[in-house]
Amino acid sequence: MWLSMAIVVVLVVSVVWTVFSKGAKAMSWEMVSKLPGGGFYIGKEGGFLNAIVGSLMIVGASTVLGLLVSIPVVLFLNVYLHKESRLAYVVRLAFDVLFGVPSIVYGAFGFTLMIWFGLRTSLLGGIIVITLLIIPIFVRTMDEASRNFPRGILDACLSLGATRWETLKVVVRQIAPGIATATLLSVGRAIGDAASVMFTAGYTDSIPTSLSQPAATLPLAVFFQLSSPIPEVVDRAYAAALVLTIIVLLISIAGRFITSHFSRHKV
Amino acid sequence: MIETKKLNVYMGENHILKDIDLQFPERQITCIIGPSGCGKSTLLRTLNRLIDSTEGVRLEGQVLVDGTDIISSGAEITELRRRIGLVSQRPCPLPMSIFDNVAYGCRINRMFKKRRELVYHVRQSLRAVGIMDEIKGRMRSPAARLSIGQQQRLCLARSLAVQPDYILADEATSALDPISSKKVEDLFVSLKDKYSIIMVTHTLRQALRIADNVVFMYLGEIIETGPAAEVFNNPQNELTQKYLSGAFS
Amino acid sequence: MNIRILKDRTARGIMLVLTLLSIVMVAAIAIGLYLKSKPVLESESLWTLLFSSEWKPLKGRFGFLPFLMGTVWVTLLSITIALPISLLTAVFLTEYARPIIKKFVFPVLDILAALPSVIYGVWGVLVIVPWISKSVAPHFVDFSTGYTVLAAGIVLSVMVVPLLVSLFIEVFSSVPVELREASLSLGATRWQTALRVVMRKSLAGILASSVLAVSRAMGETIAVLMVCGCVVGMPHGLLDACYPIPALIANNYGEMLSIPLYESALMFAALMLFAVVLIFNLVSRVVLYRIEKQNE
Question: How far is Cα A217 from Cα A52, in angstroms, rounded to an integer?
Answer without folding.
Answer: 6
